[in-house]
What does this fold into?
Amino acid sequence: MSSLKTLKSKKGQVTIFIIIAIIIIAAVLLFLFLSGTFTKGLFPEAKEAQQKFLGCVELKTRNALSIAGMQAGYLELPSFEAGSSYMPFSNYFNFIGSKVPYWFYVSGNGIANKQMPSQSEIEKQISEWLEEEISDCIPNIESTDMIFEGNPSVTTSITDNSVNLEIYFPLKVTKGESTSIIEKHSTSVKTKFGSLYSDAKKIFDSENTELFLEEYSIDFLNLYVPTTKFELSCAPKIWQVSEVENNLKDALSANVPMIKFKGSYYSLSKPENKYFVTEPSVKNQVNLIYSKDWPTKIDVWPSEEGVLQAIPIGNQPELSILGLCYLTYHFVYDVTYPILIQISNDQEIFQFPVLVVIDKNTAREAESEESVISSFDICNNKAQTATVLTYDQDANPLETRIYFKCFNQECYIGKTIEDSGKEKLTAKFPECVNGVLIAKKEGYEDSRTIISSNQPFIQNIFLDKTYPLEVDLNLAINEKAIVTFVSENKKISLYHPEQKTIELAPKTYNITVQLTKESTLNLESQTGEKCVNIPGGLGLPFLEKEECFELNIPEQTFTEVIFGGGNSIRTFESQELKSKNILKITPEKFDVPSSIEELAEIYELLEVSELKIQLK
It folds into this structure.
């Protein structure tokens, strides 16, 4: 009997456990229902609200991806770093009025830097972008009340073919007596952004290790401009440096777009065209772009008064016994220029710029995270004694710091000291033909004098005082400007409104302004065949042969375009600079262009548009 009671007691306990389990399951199901995980249980208006919300999120995401693609992966741009007269490139590339961060650049003081965003950084920026934007995505459904509760939290995951979003942003939907709270939202946006970024990263990694852009550039250098050669000739050869620079820019403009990567987005009409094909393998279409109008730094030695010359040997009277003449020359180049790399798939584009650096006819060294562009430290080889005396523009002695630049290296020599009423420095300098003697003083414009230090010298230097001015362009909130001041030996660029002050000396400046504004401009796709000459005709590196490729540049969309500006020449006197502190510049403004034809018209107008310049 007692065993029967025990059995009934155990059955009763099991029944209680089953009931408790049912209650727990029901509670979990109710929670999932209310949280929106089971959307089948939502009433129709709640389902529609979530669909509209996710549709809006998808549009916001595509907008973010489009901007990131045009800005080298960045939604929030890195801090601006200005260039210098030595290296006239900032960490931004200005592409049709839009600032695109370089993935590789050289700072104004010669430091090589990388600023490629990682995939996790891009995902983080997209999440933060959406957290700021999606509060605008509250659905509008008739006779239904909706409200977001709390602040949104977004997690972004990028794959080759999609961007996946997990959003915690409770949406409370009420209609009559029915209420649903949808706490979490998930969606997947179909896009090739991840695949484009993957190809971009592979190309950038390959460039940093293999330096293929520099290697191609050295070929173009040897083919199109005088470098090193021996030939039988009794006639001298002379080249204008300006003409050599233009020829090299033309060669780069023609040849850079021909470079291809292993993939299926082109076909080779001839086996020899493999010259232009390089690693790595890519999944998408890639175009490389360079324009001769982009900032390009070209230095060549030895030159004299803008001329390169090769003098023959053998036609001198004392050598005529040789019975023949020959000439030999060796010119050394430093070349730095930008290339914009665009990866595309249908209408989606990802682009990033890099600087290509040729240092004394050779490729820069493969870089680590940060290094100095330099091959030989000339500053540690000071052998020639010289004297420098420095003055202000009124011939008063002025204490300054003295530097000496040879090729692309700038060496600190020392500081002048007072000696018998004069500011003087006597010190050892590196031996260099056509070096640059530089004097610097805070509040004064750097003085630069070309001088050869392979023999002793005494040099007087005069520095112009500079005066700080606030630049007033009277820009609207969504307007920006690039202002350039070019004097006889200096170029200064100012990005307004990020930079609003500038220091000018009493001299003549050519002032140029480009105004940009947030707008949408579509550039149509372009197709066609491009042919250029390359080294290697008949298997000989000094002969040329023609190679052709089909070009296919996809449609592009820009969110910031040029709509005004102008240029003017203005001479500033020291007296007016002393008494004024505001430089008011009034540029011409035109209608914002909506087509490439209208943009071309604006560029033509800018060439003849004059700036109104006032000191106040």
